[in-house]
Structures are given as C-alpha cells and as structure tokens.
Amino acid sequence: MASASWLDIDEDSPFSIDNIPFGVISHNSRLADRQVAVAVGEYAILLQELVNGGALSQCPDIQPHLDCLRQPSLNDFASLGRPLHQTFRLYLRDLLRADTPYPGQLRDNRQLRNRAFFFRSDCANHVPMIIGDYTDFYAGVNHARNVGTLFRGAQNALQPNYMHLPVGYHGRASSIRPSGCPIRRPAGQILPAPEAAAPVHSASRKLDMELEMAAFLCKGNGPDGRPISIAEASSHIFGYVLMNDWSARDIQAWEYVPLGPFNSKNFATTISPWIVLADALEPHRCQSTTQRPVESALLPYLDEKSAPTFHDIPLSVRLEYPIHSEAGSNDKATTTITDTNASHLMYSFPQMLVHHTVGGCEMRVGDLLGSGTISGDTAGSLGSLLEMTDNGKTPLKLDDSVGSQRTFLEDGDEVVMTGKAGSKGAYIGFGDCRGIIVPAY
Amino acid sequence: MASASWLDIDEDSPFSIDNIPFGVISHNSRLADRQVAVAVGEYAILLQELVNGGALSQCPDIQPHLDCLRQPSLNDFASLGRPLHQTFRLYLRDLLRADTPYPGQLRDNRQLRNRAFFFRSDCANHVPMIIGDYTDFYAGVNHARNVGTLFRGAQNALQPNYMHLPVGYHGRASSIRPSGCPIRRPAGQILPAPEAAAPVHSASRKLDMELEMAAFLCKGNGPDGRPISIAEASSHIFGYVLMNDWSARDIQAWEYVPLGPFNSKNFATTISPWIVLADALEPHRCQSTTQRPVESALLPYLDEKSAPTFHDIPLSVRLEYPIHSEAGSNDKATTTITDTNASHLMYSFPQMLVHHTVGGCEMRVGDLLGSGTISGDTAGSLGSLLEMTDNGKTPLKLDDSVGSQRTFLEDGDEVVMTGKAGSKGAYIGFGDCRGIIVPAY
C-alpha cells in the first residue's frame, strides 16, 4: 500500500507521497510573494519552480493550465476540477517514487530540487484559497447532544429539526486564519452572572476551542444558484482541512438568541495549512458512526443511500501551556485532551452542500464549509472544553507535575489539532492546526 | 438649497446634482465591460470617459487616483476615504451646475458628453462592490417587537439582549443581487402544518420581503481586526443602498433554532443600484424615532451621546402584480403597501459597526451591513408581509378593481422599494430596489 520515495520521509509524517496536499507559502529570504506549493515529508515543494524547471513536462493534462500553478491562491487550480487534481497529484507522486518513471525530471535534477524544495519549518503558510463565503455546520451529533443537554436537559437536547437537516449558519470569511496565527482573546458583552440585570463590557472569560473538519469547494453552481444534487455533490469538493472554530461561550450565551452566534465566533477561526485533496482521502471513506433513527428517515434530496461519504480519520487535540514552577522558571507542558474521529458526524459534507443549495444559494470556488464540532461519545473524545468541563463547572485536570487544570482557555495556552488517516509510511494527514491565545486589547 | 444644472433634470428625480451616487454599469452595445459611473437625472455618466476627455483636470485631488475610476467595481475608489469622496463628488456637482466654474470641461464639450452620458434605462446595473462579507442586523425595533409579539406574545417580544446591543447575524455575500435581477422562489424543508411530525421538501409558501437600508464600508480594520471606536466609525462608511432581504418564512420557522436563519435568506438579497455617498446624506441626519428606556443605558463603547447618526429618509414599498380580468387579459396593477422612514431604527450604522468589531472581527473595504427590517409603528408603515398579515392570518387588501389580496408573495409579483431624502429639485434618493418573483425550480 505505502509508496516508497527517493526522498527521506519519516514514516510518521502526515505527508507521505500518498497524500501530497496543496497549500500557499512564503519564505523570508527566498520567496517574498505567496505561491502555491505541495507538502511532502518535511518539505514544501514550490510548484512554479517545477514548471520553470520542466519537471511537469511528462504530465500532458496539466500543460494547458500551468498558469494555475503560479498563483498566490489555489482557486484557479481548484477550478480545474477533480479529475485533473487527481491526475496531477498522481503525477507528482510518480515524480517522488523510489521507482519514478521520470528520474530526470526531478530526482536526478539537483539544481531544480535546490530551487523547488523548502523546509516547511522555514516557510509561512497562508490561507490557501480566496474564500468567498464561509459556512459552519453543526453536524457533530454528539456535540449537539452534549451542548443541548447542558442547556435544555437530556430530554430536549436535540431540536426537532436536527434529525432532518444539517443545521448550519453563515460564518465570517474574514475570520479565517492560517495555523500559527496568534489568537487575540475577544472582548464583548457578557452577563457577569446568570441573574445579572445588565451586561458588562469585558474580555471573554470562557474562551473555548472547537475541533472541526472543513471542506473547500472547487466548483460553484452560479450565478443562478442551481440546487446541487446528492449525486453530483462530491465533484464540488476540492479537499479538506482541520479547523478550530474558536468560541467565546459567555459572549455567545448573551448574544445568540434569536439570530445565532455572531461576535462569539467572528474574531478568528483557524485552519490547518495544507488542503488534503478529496481524492487522497478516498481510500479512507467510511460510514458515519451514528445510526439514524428509523423514524427520522431523510427526505430524498439528502438521501445518500448508505454511500460511505464520511472519513475514518483519527483526530487529536493537545494543549500546550505554560507552567510556573516554584523556582519561578517558565516551562511548557503538554496534555492531549481529545482523541476522536472524523466519522462522528450525522451529516456528510456532500449532504451539507446539497442542503446549502436546496433553496438556490450560490456557491463559488473557494467557499469553505465547516462540519461543526466533532466529539466522540466518551469522556476523552470531546471536541470542546464546554463539553469536557460541563460549561466550566468541572475543571479538566492536565498531565503535569504542578496539578494544572482548566475550565476554559487561558492566555498563553496553545491549542494544537492534528489528524491523519492510514498507517505508518502512508499517512494522509493535515499537519498542525495551531493557535496561541494572546491577551485581549 | 437646490442646485440648478445645465442638464434637464426632473425635479422629482432621486438623482439631483446634490446627490451624485456611484454605481457600476454595462451597456449592450456601447460598454461590454463593467465600469464605474455616477447617476444624475435620467443619465449614467461613465467616469472613465470623463478621465479620458480631460473633464477631471480641474480636480487636483483625484489626479493621483484616476485608475480607481477605470475599474469594474468601486472598491478602489472607496478605499480613497471619505474626504476624497466628498471632494470628488462636489467637483462633479460643480461640473454639472448651471453656473459651472468649468464650462469647457463638460458642459460645452458635446463630443465628451456624447461619449460619457448613457440613459440609465439603457444600462444594466451590477453589484457595485466586491463584497468580502455581508452582515445583516436587526436594528428595526418596531419590526423586532412585532415579530417577537407574533411568536412569543407582547410581554416577551424583545429578547433581554435587544436593548443592549445591535443583534446581527452573518449573511451570505454570494446572495447579493442588483436591482432588477429576477428572484427565484426557494424550495426547502418546511413543516406542512404546525403539528406535523416531519418536514416536507417544497417550494416556499411564505415568501416575504424585508425593507432595509444597508451600508458599504470604505475602510477596514485589518488584518489584526482592531475594534473600531464610536468616534471613528463614520469614517468607515462609504455610502448607503436600499435592500430587500427576501425571506422564506416557512423555511425560516423550521430551521432557525438554534443557530439562526440560513436557507430562508441565502437564496437572494436585492440592493438598489446606486450607492448614495455618506456625505450626500449628511444634511439629512437626524435622531432615531425610538426613545431608549432609561433603565437600559448603553455601555460606553456604543454610546453616541445623542449624536444625530440616523437618517430622515422617507421609504416606500410598492407591489406590482398581475391581475387577471374576466376577459382573460393579463394586466398589471400597483399598490403602495408601505410608507415609512429610515429613522425607525434602534441602532445607527456606526453603532452596528462598532459592535461588529468589539471582539476583534476583521472588516474589509466592500463589506456590507444591513439594518434589519424598517417598520414604523402604524399599520401602513410595516416593512414585511409577516407583520402586515399577522403571519398570513389576515390577508392584505390591494388597490385594484378585482379585489386582489396577499398573505405572502406570489409568482409574478414584483416588489419595488424606493426612498429619497430632501425636497423637490434637490432629492437625495436611491432609485428602485426591484425584484420579480419567478417560480421555483
């Protein structure tokens, strides 16, 4: 199954040559302008250099589209469509295989390798697409049930619509941040106590994370906004990233009735740096872990007839945080706070997209759809601190020598989300989706 | 007060030379590409032709920025900032005055006038800015109270947060349509009856309009998303349009708890074609018609200290609809269904913008903020059919010979919103915000 490469790639790397995700990078000294690249092992490979160096000459299908590989975003490349993404990705894999059929194009062209290869750790990653609109769904049924139970009790945890449609809301495209961008704690209106008569203006005291997957689109339905059918929905999905939908729970609780979350979400949303193409995840398709109750059969326009359109991707969240020893030194500790799986969703991305467009909503290349928080059904598999701590009532104990615990995030805390499908030597992964909390203005 | 022009301008025109709103047009035979223009009387004046013909030579401030006037959108021009917008608008007014100080630049240059002037009725208008994100507020307090009363009773009409912050939600930038674009009736999930056990997939049976004002931004706060203070908020507002926030009430009722409106709104939102610059409306600033209760004083970050930041703009909605006579002929009838005023808001646009950014949300040039539905407090001044018909229970009688009535919009109905401030010969108006309903797919 795993493909061996002439490159030295750690067998635990999320970026095996079976993956080859796409992103946009810059580099302090070698690359001032943003450019599209792919990630392999510890490298980012600049596609414009492969074009310039002739390494793509044996891939006839990409020849008419080389300009798409010299852009500061992936929108033009995405627009080429999934069959071409797959052809090109497999060609790049062939270039990198130990038994490459095209040794002269890259493996044996040291000058080109020197120009095209960057250490990922030396590069800055940028939001890889121009995002027209960003939508966040609520398809993580365990999360929805846990949150509903917290606020309305177990009997009324899920709203009546939940089993019939993927609930979603429009997010803020300007809020999307690349991994590594510091996250400033938001301020806003919060109720100082549940029974308070009036709100105060304060930095959020309940800053939370939300573990999500998100999909970028490679095909629109405009300008007339034709509904997308369930049969064609997959062809609109370019690829996937991990997403941290930072949420200020106290701002949210005060503002969200009746029109939904607003300032509690729009300050920042972090995505992992590399878009894993939909085709790379095809071998890891699976069923949802959630059984749909017989009495809530889906309407035909949403019915996938048990097609395996979910993904078996183990996901983790770790907290990297400062600890203050008695000697006064500042160290960092790390605790893994979540181990879960991308398959814990009630609705697949094709279903989300179909429902999004059932009324004629126009979608564009580069649009981003978030899954909603992904939680498993056990204590260690929850995707938000809200759930882990029972809305701050039960602190989470962290793994360190000084007895640290958390209800919500503190300044200096860094949340790192990771995920990779597959097995050693052939991982299809995302790289870190990372953000550190800095104090409010 | 009114400025006379050498152009023949109807004294009822919304586009007096005291207005000079900005838009983007194309023309079947004379102008294939979209270009920025201004509206005066029955004309659209193409700015690139004024540049090419030397008509702007006496306006030194615009000289370094002439490229901004040769664009398919107004984003670059907007970015120049309000002082320059004002200088340039007043220069254009001077060019058009009967006693113009620059007669040779335009008035006496017939060749240039022939190239630069188009009849507005021959032109297509386009969405005039590239909209990064679109937000819709709920600042029309009469509307919020009416809708709250319908669904929760008079005692609980307004949520506890309403008097403390401008409630808003993220809309869909891709849904914004220019006036005149047909509006396809959306389909989606609706409950066939209030007590139904499951939804059906159906064309909306409760398609409604919402009368709103909306503001385009000319200044961002990014990329770090600094909160915008109430003192500086006005400098971020480029200008205003009318907006029809089409709403499918049956889809909305089923979907909107807990995360807000989604498919009930994202199929289409129509805006009037010309952006009336903020400075053109300065003479028509006023106080809100709504008294804030003493017990709900605003937090300091929102407090405008009674500055008159609302606008005294009479607004109307008329319905143009087919009537079927006994002889079988199809005629159209017209009924004015709303007369109200833009001052019926609880929060001003500067307050909306300040609240939007209090948590660090990034705003960009071209972002669009809607006010929420504007209703007066009398029967003939309501901004939605939901309110006029008590959610469809009491049909609205229309003014025609065949006794037509409406609960919600029917296919073939055309909604036309208009608004103009000022008085005869000096109106500052918007032109029609128009959309006709076409059948669902």
UniProtKB/TrEMBL annotation, chains A, B:
Keywords: Calcium, Hydrolase, Magnesium, Metal-binding, Phenylalanine catabolism, Tyrosine catabolism. One of its GO terms (biological process) is homogentisate catabolic process. Its cofactor is Mg(2+); Ca(2+). Mg(2+) binds at D245, K265, T269. It catalyses: 4-fumarylacetoacetate + H2O = acetoacetate + fumarate + H(+). It is an enzyme of class 3 (hydrolase). Residues 135-431 form the Fumarylacetoacetase-like C-terminal domain. Ca(2+) binds at D136, E210, E212, D245. Belongs to the FAH family. This is Fumarylacetoacetase. It comes from Saxophila tyrrhenica. The lineage of its organism: Eukaryota, Fungi, Dikarya, Ascomycota, Pezizomycotina.
